[in-house]
Write the structure tokens for this entry.
Amino acid sequence: MAIIIKTPEQIEGIRKSSQLAAETLKYIEPFVKPGVKTIELDGLIEAFVLKNGATAATKGYRGFKHASCISPNDVVCHGVPNDYVVKDGDIINIDVTCILNGYFGDTCRMYLVGEVSEYAKKLVQTTKECLRLGIAECKPGNHLGNIGFAINEHAVKNGYSVVFEFCGHGVGIRFHEDPQVDHVAKKNSGAVLRPGMTFTIEPMINAGKARCKVDRKDGWTARTIDGKLSAQFEHTILITEDGCEALTDVYGDF
């Protein structure tokens, strides 16, 4: 599969879908509090997405039954919404992909619930910094691998590890396209970035070992192998003529 260079019309469609996905994460923020079940959050997310004329890409994808992935504490990614009750001190990732008028927008972010430990706050902040450094490498003529090189360098410098079993990906026309965006990579490796490329950067940073284990019961929920915390942020990125645009950045952080 070749990397798809998007047309201006496609880019506008992907931008709108990406913004809706990001607005969904902003909408759900006040509901992420002690006492709520993750399945209840998923229901609110699905209702918001449908109300805005879109559908959730995850629902029905390879048998996944929910409109979002919700991953608390030691869950790295693909957390299945269930009866888990959110509690004070949790760190929780919520990942949403919208399909709006046939275009896909994909994003995730962390939520800190109540009084969170400094240990957890540092992990979350470093993960956001890793994404920011990866985005800084997104410019025409640069190599794709420099994204992962920058992410891994910063994470390791801060005493963390980078998950290599899951990665970012092209997105926009389909849920998953080329290129694969590794978060651990060699400097100046991979494809050359060109205007019109759209892909996700979504580093998963672990407080302990980089490895994951997938829950055998649901076949989706990936946890850290040592039970330590994990954090993730994700944006859908467009390569422009002179740099990039984080299409899902409605918070203005990047």
